[in-house]
Amino acid sequence: MGRNGKLSNVYLAVVFAILYAPIAYLIFYSFNSGGHMRGFEGFTLEWYREVFADTRLLIIVLNTFIIALLSSAISTILGVAGALAIYHVRRKRTKNTLLSLNNVLIVSPDVIIGASFLILFTMIGIKLGFTSVLLSHIAFSVPIVVIMVLPKLQEMSPTLMDAARDLGAGSWQILTRVVLPYVKPGIFAGFFMALTYSLDDFAVTFFVTGNGYSTLSVEIYSRARQGVSLSINALSTLLFLLTVLLVVGYYFINRRAARIPAGGKGLRP
Amino acid sequence: MQTKASTRNAYLIPYVLWMVLFVVAPVLLVIYYSFFDVEGNFTLGNYVRFFTPVYMQMTLSSFWYAFLITAFSLLISYPTAYMLTRTKHKQLWLLLIILPSWINLLLKAYAFIGLFGTYGLTNSLLEVVGIGTQQILFTDFSFIFVSVYIFIPFMILPIFNALEEMNPSLIYAARDLGASSWLTFRRVIFPLTISGVKSGCQAVFIPALSLFMITRLIAGNRVITLGTAIEQHFLVTQDWGMGSTIAVFLIIAMAVIMFLTGSGKKEVRNGKKRKTV
């Protein structure tokens, strides 16, 4: 085991190094006064100042967060309804159909989701911009929420609901007092995942933004195509810190909520 | 019983409505649009065009790249997942493996522009080693490297889960019966974790077919995948018909792959949605 263990540690270390190299690289050069990503010239916070002075960029960041929060809140509601719907369906065929439909958006490539939504919105006559982006983010988040909530529902013993009903609880009471508290960890996990997907999404958004409206990924894309600018580095450093905070928060919610070895399971991919 | 039936329907209404509007309708619309040309006339021409050498070659190369990306990801991820299950705080390490995948993909691609650039870190290292500066950015190598980089976590996760679910006493039994480490791996561990490998490959291959942002930023438009072609037709040439036709083929390819890799309910529970572009 000794030699083997050492070798595997080296291997793991290399994998970790490669995984974190680009992030470290970005953060390191965000402090470079030279204005490029080759050779460090001197420490500066200039690029951070630039990020905070860039009103357009700040508005885009705000847009991104509004879309993320709104879409994950709405998709959580829809997703919980969906999970309950699938849970209550008795016929196996219907259940499987619903589950496969649910999976379509999860497995289909973002390009297809984006392109088909572009057609859809043009057909119904929804103007490309805030509404179209919001709707498509809700659309791809709903199945994720369903997948996070459904296992929790299935874990729940049906006798709990029977007991509540025997004690005279109505459907609404059963839902709010028994079912929802039980599946709360799943709901939180779903909301959180929807949030990160929305914050991260590029491909779908790219298709449905239209002119004048932009989210962060789309903006980074267009800036990156124009070449290197260290304010992107500064921005990415800030985003990295935020992501770490979110992940740590998620990790603790997950650990507190359920001691099930599900730990990393619910995480994305 | 009466009330139960009515509540059941109440949950179904919003969900099914949403599904019909955002799952069924878009797919049908894509198929519908694939029968129209740029002027909006009904035609089968798009399908004829898809089978011309230009598009066929693109499809083949797209599959070839996706295959390479999947193979390399698997090659790197399997040992990583295996070693992760052997570490002490494996959940924490797994979280650290997954953490980079939460960082916006665009930012990582952007970082690679710097890393692989003419004056970037990689070239400085090559200079030190004595190989000298190479053109790394805008090559097949950089494209595959960055894609593999992006997909590794999505391959590791299902394999890790499969390894975790495996009963360790099976390995002890194999060892007791005199199997070597390699034989144990080949005959016991790998077959038992094949479901994880399959869902990992599925989670990598399908998005790899449809990459489009990486091809622009890292491969400098040299690589054209099905995804790039769709994006090009929809957003640049505005030929939605042809774009839809390619999309239809991508959907078919996806269905075939999912059938081959046998997507069961189990993989779905892993909540593996690949996030890619």
Automatic annotation (TrEMBL), chain A:
User: How does the record classify its membrane topology?
Assistant: Multi-pass membrane protein
Q: Which UniProt keywords apply?
A: Cell membrane, Membrane, Transmembrane, Transmembrane helix, Transport
Instruction: Tell me which GO cellular component terms the UniProt record holds.
Output: plasma membrane
Q: Which PROSITE patterns match?
A: ABC_TM1
Q: Where in the cell is it found?
A: Cell membrane
Where exactly are the transmembrane stretches of this chain? Answer: 12-31, 57-87, 99-124, 130-151, 228-253
This protein's superkingdom? Bacteria
Q: Which residues fall in a coiled-coil region?
A: none
ABC transmembrane type-1 domain location, by residue?
61-250
Indicate the principal place this protein occupies in or around the cell.
membrane
Q: Which Pfam families match?
A: BPD_transp_1
Q: Which GO terms describe its biological process?
A: transmembrane transport
UniProt keyword S-adenosyl-L-methionine, yes or no: no
InterPro entries reported in the protein's UniProt record: Bact_Polyamine_Transport, MetI-like, MetI-like_sf
Similarity remark: Belongs to the binding-protein-dependent transport system permease family. CysTW subfamily.
User: PANTHER family under this entry?
Assistant: PUTRESCINE TRANSPORT SYSTEM PERMEASE PROTEIN POTI
Protein name (database record) = ABC transporter permease
The organism named in the record is: Paenibacillus sp. AN1007
UniProtKB/TrEMBL annotation, chain B:
Q: Which domain of life is it from?
A: Bacteria
Q: Which cellular component, as a GO term, is one annotated location?
A: plasma membrane
Residues that span the membrane, as ranges: 12-35, 63-85, 92-116, 136-160, 204-224, 244-264
What does the similarity note say? Belongs to the binding-protein-dependent transport system permease family. CysTW subfamily.
User: Could you tell me which Gene3D superfamilies the record lists for this protein?
Assistant: MetI-like (1.10.3720.10)
Native species of this protein? Paenibacillus sp. AN1007
BP term (GO), one: transmembrane transport
Q: How does it sit in the membrane?
A: Multi-pass membrane protein
Its keywords, alphabetically, are: Cell membrane, Membrane, Transmembrane, Transmembrane helix, Transport
Outline the extent of the ABC transmembrane type-1 domain: 59-261
Protein name as it appears in the record? ABC transporter permease
Protein's cellular compartments: Cell membrane
